[in-house]
Specification:
alpha+beta; 3-stranded mixed β-sheet; 5 helices; globular
Length: about 140
């Protein structure tokens, strides 16, 4: 979520591989009844190579607004054995709230492990799940 966390490994992806921002982007697009992140920012398009993922999240927030909607809250769970998410939670929350123009209290972030199970437990990757509640009552 826009935080550089010191760690002995890094993520690899077409953009900057920010799994938190990607999951939140898809959650907002889904809540608005729109296609997924790959439709708007296809990995086959070189213009998104190494792009900062806050662009994607801001786009999703602006799309909700363009539909007359309002983001009520977003919830993100980052799943990894390491690094620990807790020490970075408040900075992540601030970055997300700035991207989406919402209050930090409307952003929830949790870190979870898989208790050493599977590829996540072996520290071979990271995963994220997100939900978003939006109001499209107009």
């Amino acid at each position: 979520c826009g935080v550089q966390i010191p760690f002995n490994r890094s993520l690899v992806g077409h953009s900057d591989a920010d799994v938190g921002y990607h999951a939140l982007t898809d959650a907002l697009l889904g809540a608005a009844g729109k296609d997924d992140i790959g439709t708007y920012f296809p990995p086959s398009d070189d213009q998104w190579k190494d792009a900062p993922s806050d662009i994607f999240l801001k786009h999703a927030g602006e799309l909700v607004s363009s539909l007359g909607g309002k983001i009520e809250n977003v919830d993100l769970t980052i799943i990894c054995e390491a690094p620990r998410i807790g020490p970075h939670r408040e900075e992540m929350r601030g970055n997300i709230s700035a991207c989406l123009a919402v209050e930090p209290s409307q952003v929830n972030i949790k870190g979870k492990t898989t208790e050493k199970l599977g590829f996540l437990g072996r520290e071979e990757g990271i995963a994220a799940q997100a939900t978003a509640t939006i109001n499209l009552s107009n």
